[in-house]
Design a protein that fits this description.
Elements lengths: L3 E4 L4 E4 L7 E6 L10 H19 L3 E6 L6 H9 L4 H18 L15 H13 L3 E3 L5 E3 L26 H6 L6 E6 L14 E3 L3 H11 L2 E8 L3 H14 L4 E8 L2 E3 L2 E2 L10 H4 L5 H10 L6 E2 L2 H25 L9 H8 L4 H20 L3 H17 L7 H4 L3 H23 L3 H12 L4 E5 L2 E5 L1
Parallel strand pairs: 3-4, 3-9, 9-10, 11-13
Antiparallel strand pairs: 1-2, 5-6, 6-7, 7-8, 11-12, 14-15
Helix pairs in contact: 2-3, 4-6, 6-7, 9-10, 10-12, 10-13, 11-12, 12-13, 15-16
This protein binds one RNA strand of 74 nucleotides through helix 1, helix 7, strand 12, strand 13 and helix 10.
Length: 462
RNA sequence: GGUGGGAUGGCCGAGAGGCGAGGCUCAGGACUGCAAAUCCUGCUACACGGGUUCAAAUCCCGUUCCCACCUCCA
């Protein structure tokens, strides 16, 4: 039993073997902090958070790098639009991303490097590319990668240079300076009013792709295990990262993983389409743990077709599982431990087959509920532990402090009040005054609590 | 034009030659003062047309439709 994973480079699922036994280095392309995140961005974070948690659960020591790109064309553009310095805009949205990740229990990366903090590494990398004849500086101070000087190009997307649509680049000047129309900018010369850093080729700022090549190398080395990101980064971003790093003589990532999108009405969620769904909007509809459950429930390489109904349905499914765990904890008199069921491990090892893993969880819950009814506490404990262990891998353990912290202060007072009411209702039921009993129950349920009568007495939950 | 991914029951969502994944909804039953929760039973689907095969949702050929990327993108 061992982990197999897809690799976009080969389009095959193959056994995962780390470069260094027991350790895994992962680089995930994080946010370009130019606007608030939508659920598609966060889905990517969740998909690869599940990968990370599963690797940890499997005994690996994981170094997880997720970058922040805090300088690019869009950031400069939006900063003008929002009438603030570009660095203020970048920081503002970085905080929004960080908060969204935290609300959905995405583990903070081992390190979160910012592009602007790694100009030195970028300049070194560009210099090396020029030395090796893979890149060239032009008269105005731009530096381009010469894609036809590479041994290989477009290995990830499977395209041919000549098949690419000619660039819609309207900048006639840069077009005339480039050796090939497909050459892309490693470094952009300074323009009036834009930020710039000094280099041997003059003042300027980074091109879009160079930061990831530089930062991945800085923290994970010249060769590392996994590079991940969204499907739409395959070309040009990841293709160009490979070009830059291989061109400089570095092996770079051994395996590439790409997550699919969240779609609405069959279309990709996109800032430019304006069909985005914000986290804080959805959190008015369901709890964070339920939104996380939903976003993590489809296979990472499958599109997830969003609808409010699908979200609600998924939340109902989660509550059944959560309700089982609460029932088990009450009956056992303790919170179950975390354990990994064999079938769950088998599903996760199969290229993170989360949907199959969810089927396993459903069976565990059914078995566990039967054990609870049969008062078989040993079996109940085992099933509950396996359910909790599975939820923990998916980042949805109800006892994870991420979810409980905001309820902590009120819980004692609240449960005391509810218990008082339930005691009155029990007294009414005992004297067969069902009208009063039902009135009390209605008053409690109208506040959004659920009352369940069990042989051991009433139980309530939110 | 080039490259890639899709179409599965009322809905969501797996599977990739042979035992109805799973969930949600719905119907019936057990339990219950009534509910709720739980459990049991039921609802036999794979875009279309051909073909290969003892056997096809799965492989092959053709067709229709959808989506994405081709230098802004998770």
């Amino acid at each position: 039993m061992s982990l197999t994973l897809y690799n976009t480079l080969t389009r095959e699922i193959t056994p995962f073997t780390p470069i260094e036994s027991g350790k895994v280095g992962i680089y995930l392309c994080g946010a370009t902090v130019q606007a608030p995140p939508h659920i598609g961005h966060i889905r990517s974070g969740i998909n690869f958070d599940i990968l990370r948690r599963w690797l940890i659960a499997s005994g690996y020591c994981v170094t997880f790098i997720r970058n922040v790109t805090d300088i690019d064309d869009k950031i400069l553009h939006n900063a003008i639009h929002e009438e603030m310095p570009w660095w203020a805009l970048a920081q503002k949205y970085e905080r929004v991303f960080t908060a969204a990740y935290a609300e959905l229990n995405v583990l903070p990366p081992t390190y979160e490097p910012r592009a602007t903090g790694h100009i030195t590494q970028m300049v070194e990398l560009i210099a090396r590319l020029i030395e090796r004849g893979k890149a060239y500086a032009v008269a105005n101070g731009d530096v381009y990668l010469d894609v036809r000087a590479l041994d290989e190009y477009l290995t990830l997307s499977g395209q041919k240079i000549d098949d690419l649509q000619s660039s819609p680049d309207t900048d006639e000047l840069s077009l005339s300076l480039k050796k090939n129309p497909q050459d892309f900018a490693l470094w952009k010369s300074a323009k009036p009013g834009e930020p710039s850093w000094p280099t041997p080729w003059g003042n300027g700022r980074p091109g879009w792709h160079i930061e990831c090549s530089a930062m991945a190398q800085a923290y994970l080395g010249e060769k590392f295990d996994i590079h991940a990101g969204g499907l739409d980064l395959i070309f040009p971003h990841h293709e160009n990262e490979i070009a830059q790093s291989n061109g400089a003589g570095y092996p770079f990532a051994q395996r590439w993983l790409h997550n699919a999108w969240v779609t609405t009405a069959g279309e990709k969620m996109s800032k430019s389409l304006g069909n985005t769904l914000r986290i804080h909007e959805l959190l008015k509809r369901v709890r964070g743990i339920e939104l996380r459950w939903y976003l993590g429930s489809a296979h990472y390489r499958s599109m997830l077709e969003y609808s409010p109904e699908a979200l609600d349905e998924s939340a109902v499914n989660f509550r059944r599982i959560e309700s089982f765990l609460k029932r088990a904890a009450a009956q056992l008199g303790k919170v179950p431990e975390r354990a990994i069921a064999d079938d769950f491990a088998k599903a996760m090892d199969d290229d993170l087959a989360v949907p199959a893993a969810l089927a396993v969880i459903s069976e565990l819950v059914r078995d566990g509920n039967n054990a609870a009814t049969a008062k078989d506490n040993a079996l109940l404990d085992r099933k509950a532990s396996e359910v909790r262990g599975a939820l923990a891998v998916l980042g949805c353990d109800p006892w994870d402090t991420t979810w409980s912290s905001n309820e902590a202060g009120l819980s004692d007072v609240l449960s005391g009040l509810v218990k008082t009411l339930l005691d009155e209702r029990e007294a009414a039921r005992a004297r067969k005054d069902f009208a009063s009993a039902d009135r009390i129950r209605d008053s409690i349920t109208s506040l959004g609590l659920t009352i369940e009568d069990t042989p051991e007495g009433p139980r309530w939950s939110k």
